[in-house]
DNA sequence: AACAACTCCAACCGCGAAGTC
DNA sequence: TGACTTCGCGGTTGGAGTTGT
């Protein structure tokens, strides 16, 4: 038996809503409230599918909707949230009062994605590292730095120098232009932590109550990045972005591939990365990368962590970790695939 | 002025999750 | 427990409006 249709489609109207239909729907919902979408059209006297009524109400008729163009601030927020959440439009919309998921999705598809993909080289599917970037590179499957997406942001000279010193790189898709580096601020014996935290505290912050997630607003990314650059002097890294997740003392920053490569090739300190217990709820945002510069308590506890996963790019890691766990490489990889598909 | 190409966005569609019986 | 319903989400489409030639 196939799926039952959401409503009896015979004789129902499709296409654009008329002003009369809008008025009928709005009056009915104001009187009877939202919900029962299936029976709503019949009760309200509308020749529309319940689904269509729901969509019309949510996307157009609701009183709390914000009219007018997306502001620059909202645009930045969308870019930032999209970098974190991907195409989870309803989740993004929940951070933009008065905006609907459909509106944001349309705006992204018609404005922002084109703007981002218009970066030289992106259209060919091959991304050369920008020498000077007023628009950051966007890679499919990758993440775009919010800081880098700031319209008025221009990279400082030392950043450009660092970029220029990097060998020309070719990225193929899928790839990620940023690595997530996660450090426990409280555990880092670093004199500039207070300064960094002060910068962070300048940011507008909000809490997504649905999952108790702390979202950083748009602010002071330049100052934070400057601090972080000086914080990691030995790597001569370019710190691209301080990410939006700040939860208690956990801080997530992103560093460029060149930085990660530098860490990996240094042969010093930790080379392990991306650990997480399988039985914990987590997402890729919270992946951890350790290195010889930023050491955290979590890093020290690496050996004690249960069923850690590692990024596939670390060829040796699969084998060593699976041995530690008494699993085969294939089992571990299957674990990850299962999780990823779940 | 006419046509083509493009943009934008409202609306549709199919699917999966959650709820109900 | 399973069949069915309802709801919500994200991808896609259609067409009105705009811009270019």
From TrEMBL:
Keywords linked to the UniProt accession: DNA-binding, Nucleus, Repeat, Transcription, Transcription regulation
InterPro entries according to UniProt: Homeodomain-like_sf, Myb_dom, Myb_TF_plants, SANT/Myb
Principal subcellular localisation of the protein: nucleus
GO molecular function, one term: sequence-specific DNA binding
Domain of life where this protein originates: Eukaryota
Domain HTH myb-type: 9-61, 62-116
Pfam families: Myb_DNA-binding
Stretches assigned to the Myb-like domain: 9-61, 62-112
UniProt-annotated location(s): Nucleus
GO cellular component terms, A-Z: nucleus
GO biological process: pigment biosynthetic process; positive regulation of DNA-templated transcription; response to stress
CDD domains assigned: SANT (cd00167)
Protein name: Transcription factor MYB111
Organism: Glycine soja
